[in-house]
Write a structure and sequence with these properties.
Elements lengths: L26 H29 L2 E6 L6 H12 L5 E7 L4 H7 L5 E5 L8 H8 L9 E5 L16 E7 L6 H4 L1 H5 L3 E5 L12 H10 L5 E4 L8 H21 L24
Parallel strand pairs: 1-4, 1-5, 2-3, 2-4, 5-6, 6-7
Helix pairs in contact: 1-4
Length: 275
């Protein structure tokens, strides 16, 4: 994939040290370490984005708490697209190949990244996964980030858009409690709406208000993976974004989502995730 620039990284290749730093007691030193982590990550993310743009591929970063329905959304989306768009998935979890196996069972290429004890993916992990995906044959690459409501929003992966899920069982005040994640989103999906009849405490208007109050400026779609409710709007958004990415790529332009660096302050300074 990266023969021209020499960055084709296999397991034995050099890796950029995103956080090989000892614990530091002072605030200034901690800020410097976090800044260095993010700067190096941003460099690799820009490189990833160049690969996506070069192939006209739309890259989406899916973020949510564990259990909000990211993998189920992808399964339902693959079925609904029925080959209309060519997609692949990068799955991020602390352990197991379970989610990647579910995606492969839908007939779609998937690469599993296991992060060990790290609560998010980073740009280097995504870059290493790209060698195992047919980028030249894709329209969309879904990157399912590790289930976490803070850290994933702080690390650019090279994606063009951020999609954040809020499931009905989590409560309509989740955006107010975790503003970093939802403020970074270009699209907020309120999922599991088939449960609204049973979880009457969740109010859609309160959820929308909570999003507005934390500065979310994107689009909101309510949907159910099971009943199909709202799915047409989600697929239409996806098709619009694919068309926009093709146009940008033809013009030699790109798109970058909002990154919220304050989430990185939750990290200890010595952070390099294992794979």
């Amino acid at each position: 994939m990266c023969r021209d620039c020499g960055c084709s990284l296999g397991p034995a290749a050099q890796r950029a040290p995103l956080a090989a730093a000892p614990s530091v007691p002072g605030k200034t030193e901690t800020i410097e370490v976090i800044t260095a982590i993010l700067d190096e990550n941003d460099r690799i993310a820009a490189h990833n984005r160049g690969h996506f743009d070069g192939h006209g591929v739309l890259a989406l970063n899916l973020m949510s708490s564990p259990g909000a329905g990211k993998t189920s959304l992808l399964e339902a989306t693959i079925r609904a697209l029925d080959g209309k768009l060519k997609v692949a998935v990068i799955e991020g979890d602390l352990a197991t190949e379970n989610d990647a196996d579910r995606i492969r069972a839908c007939g779609v290429p998937a690469v599993q990244i296991t992060t060990g004890n790290a609560c998010h993916l980073d740009a280097q992990m995504v870059h290493d996964a790209l060698d195992r995906l047919p980028l030249a044959d894709l329209d969309v690459l879904f990157i399912e980030n590790v289930g976490n409501l803070v850290c994933p929003a702080s690390f650019d992966l090279g994606q063009h858009r951020n999609v954040t899920l809020l499931s009905v069982p989590e409560g309509d005040d989740k955006p107010a409690k975790y503003p970093v994640m939802f403020r970074a989103a270009d699209l907020s999906l309120i999922t599991k709406t088939d449960l609204l009849a049973y979880i009457t405490e969740f109010k859609l208007e309160r959820a929308r208000n909570a999003l507005r109050q934390i500065g979310f400026q994107g689009e909101t779609i309510e949907l159910s993976n099971r009943g199909g409710e709202g799915f047409a709007a989600w697929l239409a958004w996806l098709e619009r974004e694919v068309a926009a990415q093709r146009d940008r790529a033809a013009r030699g332009e790109t798109a970058k989502p909002s990154i919220q660096p304050e989430g990185a302050s939750a990290h200890a300074a010595g952070h390099r995730p294992s794979r």
